[in-house]
Amino acid sequence: MPSPAHYRSQEEDSGRWLAFSFRPYDIVISTRSKSGTTWMQMICALLVFQTADLPAPLALLSPWLDWLTIGQRQVYDQLAAQRHRRFIKTHTPLDGLPIKPDVSYLVVARHPLDMAVSLYHQGDNINRERLRQLTDAPPPSAAAPARPPLRPWLVRWVERDSDPRAELDSLPGVLWHLTDAWHRRREPNVLLVHYDDLLADLAGQMRHIAAWLGIDVPAARWPALVEAATFAAMSRKAAALVPDPNGVLKDHRAFFREGRSGTGRDLLSTGEVNRYHQRTAELAPPDLLAWLHRD
Question: What is residue 126's predicted lDDT score, i.e. its pLDDT?
């Protein structure tokens, strides 16, 4: 089996996975930014602990292993001390991870235009100076230019030709991540989940994920678990659920913004939406795009 690809940025390093000691039945949650990561972490937490009253903040129960704001040894020790079934967050595509036959890999997909809108708003909520401190990044050589308004930014995001391996939150990067997972979708330990399916039938999706993970949930517990995984309930518990143990976000309440689908498409003209579909057809296989776009 070839060695995993190496994804490295100022904030993340997939190389941290190479020395990590997996356990049988570990769960790895692999998503692009703003594509339902925290939602899937919460679903896994509810299924593992089978209570809405989690024993610790979600970021401690499900650490982001490759995020450079936390030391590698610290996150390794944190995970080694856990006695529950572990569920670990990453934004690394599956080709950058060790693939173990007894580990479960969950990939959440969201319409890229909706993901991009959420990413834009998330950018306004990040304390860049705090992030630089935590990652030992040098100060900027010049003031960052002002970002354009959302709509022209989104049009530019669609058009930008980026190296998908270097800019994973670009449109090419998003489709690189999902295409790799799509090609693995028939492997028994890889499950793709669509964000829109979670919106449309949260209870059914949670039952499906539980069955796939081999987790039995007593019937009487399901209503409370499903309610705890709703967007409204998670928003009310933002302080305990937002993935920000080191104070990188300016406002935890702003993390859970809307969570709906269709915001990206609503911003663009018919011609711009058609151009988006032309771009995606150049970047990903048609069967993946049909599933992703709900064609």
Answer: 55
Structural domain boundaries enclosing 196: 14-112+126-143+177-256
- Mean pLDDT for 16-33 is 97
Q: What contacts 65, CB < 8 A, 6 or more positions away?
A: 16, 17, 20, 75, 79, 88, 89, 90
Q: Is 295 within a domain?
A: no
Task: Kindly report the pTM of this predicted structure.
Answer: 0.90
16-40 average pLDDT score: 96
Cβ neighbour number for residue 269 with a 10 Å cutoff: 10
Tokens of 22: 């997996």
Per the DSSP assignment, residues forming a β-bridge with 29 are: 89, 106
Q: Which position among 6, 84, 91, 177 bears the catalytic label?
A: 91
Q: What pLDDT score was predicted for residue 142?
A: 63
Q: Is residue 244 part of a domain?
A: yes
Cα separation, 292 vs 295, in Å, equals: 8
Look up the CATH number of the domain holding residue 246.
Answer: 3.40.50.300
Q: Is position 293 annotated as part of the catalytic site?
A: no
Packing angle, helices 150-159 and 112-124, rounded to 10: 130
Question: What is the total count of domains within the chain?
Answer: 1
pLDDT band at 228 (very low <50, low <70, confident <90, very high): very high
